[in-house]
Structure to design on (301 residues):
């Protein structure tokens, strides 16, 4: 079972398909869950504390807005442990906490810099595209090390 | 700042979406209750939220998927159901994250079709997935026309 970074990290379709084909999807929910299940000081809504933008300094410079660094404190560790990635490019900006264009660019840059296998897609708009979309994801996931299906 | 004491530590929460011509969220909920064995299940308009120990939740989801494999979709959720930081009962308006689900559910019938067709397709068959060609740029001629129309 390989760890597969999905983008958008909140995607239902990618999360389901990656798990369905026997791998572990790395989604935003895993990091959020860890945050909100860890005792500490109350910092609603996501338990992001002033410490998190400091952790984000590993991925973005100090002059980068704290919102980007705070987000990178969630996504950065997942990018580091990812063994492959599936990226959908035409996601809407209203995808919850994926709604930060600069963070999204940085995530894609860091993924490509790691030189792991990456599958680039867009959302299917017809049944024919849906068939090819699912088949492409299955084929990609079967070819990466740690195949589970 | 005050002390934060988390609830449901050690549990996982998963969304189960059903978008099927043969099964409603209520049908799915009844079947889930039958095999829940103490796991917390919340019925929603789109399916279920299941909260419990990871192995228990995974066992229930594996069983639920068998009822309609190509029309049941699952994803992780960070918050437990009804959490006041996320529940729309406290916040008003749609729950954060709803719009992403709404967008993907509108396309999910194509994914269901793709899953149904997989069995008829060889694992090594060539694939031609939809590829993103970048944002639509402004055509240079059209830009020229705009400039000229402003100058005249």
């Amino acid at each position: 079972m390989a760890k597969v970074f999905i983008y958008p990290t909140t995607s239902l379709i990618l999360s389901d398909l990656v798990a369905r084909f026997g791998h572990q999807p790395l989604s935003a929910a895993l990091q959020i869950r860890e945050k909100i299940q860890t005792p500490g000081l109350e910092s609603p809504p996501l338990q992001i504390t002033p410490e998190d933008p400091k952790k984000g300094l590993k991925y973005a410079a100090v002059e980068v807005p704290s919102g980007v660094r705070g987000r990178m404190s969630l996504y950065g560790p997942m990018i580091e442990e990812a063994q492959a990635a599936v990226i959908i490019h035409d996601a809407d900006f209203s995808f919850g906490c994926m709604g930060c264009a600069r963070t999204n660019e940085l995530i894609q840059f860091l993924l490509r810099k790691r030189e792991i296998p990456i599958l680039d897609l867009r959302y299917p708009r017809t049944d024919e595209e849906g068939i090819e979309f699912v088949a492409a994801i299955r084929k990609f996931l079967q070819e990466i090390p740690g195949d589970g299906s | 700042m005050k002390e934060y004491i988390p609830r449901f530590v050690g549990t996982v929460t998963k969304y189960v979406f059903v978008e099927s011509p043969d099964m409603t969220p209520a049908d799915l909920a009844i079947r889930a209750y039958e095999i829940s064995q103490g796991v917390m299940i919340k019925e929603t308009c789109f399916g279920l939220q299941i909260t419990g120990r990871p192995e228990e939740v995974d066992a229930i989801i594996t069983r639920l998927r068998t009822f309609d494999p190509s029309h049941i979709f699952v994803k992780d959720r960070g918050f437990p159901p009804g959490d006041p930081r996320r529940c729309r009962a406290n916040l008003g308006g749609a729950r954060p994250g709803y719009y992403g689900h709404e967008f993907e559910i509108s396309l999910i019938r194509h994914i269901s079709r793709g899953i149904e067709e997989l069995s008829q397709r060889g694992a090594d068959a060539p694939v031609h997935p939809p590829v993103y060609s970048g944002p639509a740029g402004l055509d240079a001629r059209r830009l020229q026309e705009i400039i000229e129309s402003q100058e005249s």
Remarks:
- Chain B touches chain A through 52 residues (CB under 8 Å).
- The CA atoms of residues 7 and 33 of chain B lie 22 Å apart.
- Chain B has a mean pLDDT of 91.
